[in-house]
C-alpha cells in the first residue's frame, strides 16, 4: 500500500505527464525545443489556431513548463527548463524502439483534432 507521500509523488508525476499528453500542447513544447518563439511563430510551426495556442500557452505557463518574456509588444515563449526538451527527446528515442507496440495500442487512442 502506498504511503500518502508516495501517492502525492505519483499524482504529481501524472500531472506533469498530463502537460505532455495533449497533442496540441506537445506540438507547442516540441516547437519551443529549438528556440524561443512568439505566438505567431508557434502558430506557423504547429498549424494550430491562435485561440488554441493561446489557451494551451496559458496552461503550459501555469503548470511551469513554459515561461514568457515581454519585449515591446511581443511576448516570447521558451521552455522553462532544458529538461522539458530532454524529456521529449527521450520519448522520441523510446518511441523509436517501441513504435510498433505504441501504434497498435488501442487503449491510448487520442481523438483527432482539426485545429
Structure description:
By secondary structure, this protein is of the alpha+beta class. A 3-stranded antiparallel sheet has the order 1-3-2. The longest helix is centred in the C-terminal third of the chain and has 23 residues, at 82-104. It contains 5 helices and 3 strands; from the N terminus they run ααβααββα. The protein has helices spanning 4-20, 23-32, 39-46, 50-62, 82-104, and strands spanning 37-38, 66-71, 74-79. The protein has one domain: Arc Repressor Mutant, subunit A, CATH 1.10.10. A hairpin with a 2-residue loop joins β2 and β3.
Task: Give a short overview.
The chain has 115 residues and is of the alpha+beta class.
Q: Which of globular, elongated, flat, extended, rod-shaped describes the shape?
A: globular
CATH architecture: Orthogonal Bundle
**Class computed from helices, strands and strand pairing:** alpha+beta
Query: Per CATH, what is the topology?
Result: Arc Repressor Mutant, subunit A
Say which CATH homologous superfamily is assigned.
Winged helix-like DNA-binding domain superfamily/Winged helix DNA-binding domain
List keywords for this structure.
alpha+beta; 5 helices; Arc Repressor Mutant, subunit A; 3 strands; 3-stranded antiparallel beta sheet; 115 residues
Amino acid at each position: 500500500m502506498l504511503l500518502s507521500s508516495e501517492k502525492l509523488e505519483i499524482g504529481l508525476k501524472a500531472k506533469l505527464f498530463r502537460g505532455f499528453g495533449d497533442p496540441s500542447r506537445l506540438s507547442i513544447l516540441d516547437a519551443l525545443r529549438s528556440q524561443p518563439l512568439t505566438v505567431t511563430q508557434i502558430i506557423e510551426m504547429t498549424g494550430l489556431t491562435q485561440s488554441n495556442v493561446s489557451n494551451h500557452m496559458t496552461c503550459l505557463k501555469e503548470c511551469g513548463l513554459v515561461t514568457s518574456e515581454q519585449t515591446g509588444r511581443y511576448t516570447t515563449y521558451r521552455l522553462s527548463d532544458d529538461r522539458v526538451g530532454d524529456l521529449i527527446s527521450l520519448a522520441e528515442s523510446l518511441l523509436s524502439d517501441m513504435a510498433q507496440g505504441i501504434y497498435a495500442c488501442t487503449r491510448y487512442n487520442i481523438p483527432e483534432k482539426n485545429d
